[in-house]
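User: Sequence in, structure out. Go.
Assistant: Echoing your sequence, followed by the structure tokens.
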Amino acid sequence: MRWTDIQDIAIELEEAHPEKDNLNLRYTDLHKWVCALEGFEDDPEKSNEKILEAIQMAWIDERED
């Protein structure tokens, strides 16, 4: 997975962290969780606030489905 795989990351985050509050989170924590996902292979330095926000929104949507 890469930073651009927003939906895949959201699904994996929900499976890995179903107990986490994905509405009130710190982007530093989100960044750490994404980088720790099995299959994540992108450069940790290539993320930014816009990408992390998109991941958070997709994760919230994933949980609501």
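User: And one key feature?
Assistant: Residues 21 and 61 are 13 Å apart (CA to CA).
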